[in-house]
Amino acid sequence: MTRPAPGRKSHRLRRYVVGVVLLAVVGGTLGAFLVATDTFGAGEKWQSVLNRVDRFLAGPVPDRPTVSTVLVTEPPETPSPIPTVAPTLAPGATPTPTPKATPTPTPEPERASVDVNIEAHPNQVFASELHKDWCAPAGVQMVLAVLGLANTSDATQREIAGRIHEWDAYSDSHNGDWGPGAMALALKAYGAPGYEVRAFQTRGGALVDAARAIDKTGSPAILLAWRGAHTWVMTGYRADGDPLIFKKVKIEGTYILDPWYPRVSSIWGASDGPGVFQDAAEMQRNFLPWKRPEGRYPDRDGLWITVVPTIPQAATD
C-alpha cells in the first residue's frame, strides 16, 4: 500500500555500512549479540548511535517550507452584542414609533454527556515505539492503522522512521527530527491528506477542537504531549455536551494510544495500555504547552499543539 521513497535503498545501504563499521569497533560478535538482544539496553543505545551518525551524514537540517502551525482563536464566553444604530431624521421631523417585534423563542438543544471513540479495538491498531525516540513514527503508524492504511509491523515503523529526511525542516524541528509538520506530511504521503498543525492558548480549547475534528472526519487526532516531546494518538473523548452542537463544552478525558507503552519514564511515570481513558487529571499532567530545550519556536512556544484531520475519511477512500 506504500511506495518506497526515492533513494531508500541507498539510505539503507549507508546505514548498514556505518553499522557494520561501528559494530566492528565496539566489540565484534559480543557487541552484535548484545545489540540484537537489547541486553542492558544495548539495542536502544546502538540505535541512538545510528541516529546521530545518520543525522551527521544527512548534513544540516534543511531550512525549507513545511506544514505551518495555525493559531486557533477560541470563541469568547458570550457573543458581543450587536450595536443598535438610530435612524437619521430630517430637522424638525418626529420619529415614528417602531413596534416591538415579539421574538420567536428558539428552543435550547438538550445538553447531555457524550462518550465517543472511533476505535473499538485499540489493541489491533497499537504499535509500541521500537526505540525511545520513535514516538512520532509510531504515532503516525497508529493513525494509519486506525484508518486502514498501514499495518502495525516493526518493518512498517522502521520504514516510516527511515523517511524522516523527506519531511524534516528546521522550523519544524531544530534537531532535524520529527516535528508535528513532518507527521502531517508523513500522513499525507501514506494516503491520509488534510492533517493540520494547530496551536491553542488553552488545553481545553485544543481538546474541544480535536474532539470536533474526530467527530467531523472519523479520523484520529494527534496530541503533542510532554511539552512537545511526545506523541499521543487521540481516538475519542468524553464531554459534558456534544461539541458539534455547543460552542463551550468540557472535555472530561480522552481515549489515547500511547506509543511509549509498556515503558516507564523517569519523569512521566508508567505508560498506560492501548486505548486507556485518560481523565482530566492525566490530561493536565501530560498534555502541556510546547517548550523545547533546543531553541525557540515562535509559533508554538507556550501553546498547546495538535495535529488534527480536516478531511472526512470517506473522502480519502
Search tags:
317 residues; alpha+beta; Cathepsin B, Chain A; 8-stranded mixed beta sheet; two-stranded antiparallel sheet; 10 helices; 15% strand
Explain the layout of strands and helices:
Layout: H1 8-26, H2 28-37, H3 42-58, E1 69-71, E2 114-117, H4 122-125, H5 135-146, H6 154-162, H7 180-189, E3 196-200, H8 203-217, E4 221-225, E5 230-239, E6 251-257, E7 264-265, E8 269-270, E9 276-279, H9 280-286, E10 304-308, H10 313-316
Parallel strand pairs: 1-3
Antiparallel strand pairs: 2-5, 3-10, 4-5, 4-10, 5-6, 6-9, 7-8
Helix pairs in contact: 1-2, 2-3, 5-6, 5-7
Instruction: Please state the second-level CATH architecture of the largest domain.
Output: Alpha-Beta Complex
Overall, the morphology is globular
Largest sheet data = 8 strands, mixed
Count of β-strands: 10
> From N to C, what is the helix and strand string?
HHHEEHHHHEHEEEEEEHEH
Overall CATH class of the largest domain: Alpha Beta
Give the C-alpha Rg: 25 Å
The CATH topology of the largest domain is Cathepsin B, Chain A
- Tell me the domain tally: 2
What fraction strand? 5-15%
Distance between the termini: 13 Å
Range of helix content: 25-40%
Overall mean pLDDT score?
84
Q: Any low-confidence stretches, pLDDT <50, length ≥5? A: 1-11, 20-25
User: What is the SS-derived class?
Assistant: alpha+beta
The count of helical stretches stands at: 10
